[in-house]
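Please check what follows.
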Amino acid sequence: MNRKRQKQIEDTAKSILVSTGCYKAPVDVVQVVEKLDIRLEKYDFGDDVSGVYINEGTNTIIGYNITNGEKRQRFTIAHELGHSVLGHKRDGVFIDNPSKYFTILFRDNDSSTGEYLQEREANAFAAALLMPKELIEKSIRQYYNADKIPEDENFDLIEKLCNEFNVSSQAMSFRLTNLDMSW
């Protein structure tokens, strides 16, 4: 994905957060989805599927795996929302309905690798939505109190940010790396 597309994704995520009144950490991803009139459903998909995106005309449903941990569920919901707002279309499972077809896009182990462009874009959107760049920068400034390194030898910036944004350490580490943030 090129820088122009990354910026579009960042701008889209921020715009959604601002328009839904959810531009604060931790982002209430369920409230974002509800304010966008997208139905959210809990499912037990087993171990291999984290979520599903169903688009039927103007109706959108995001399903997420109730057996996953809360942080994984949040990322999955944001990822599936990314497919919706980024207008992703691809071959998937089509279910024949007497009057229409609707496409189902699954979030599974392959999507976690970022192997496919749409999956990478949905991951980038989820990261931008759950961990907005400006809010991360503000938090880092506060933790480092105008560039002063905390004196506590046990201080762990990643842990602090993960708790503040309610995301996994893996998600936060990827986000900081992708934003070229160092401290």
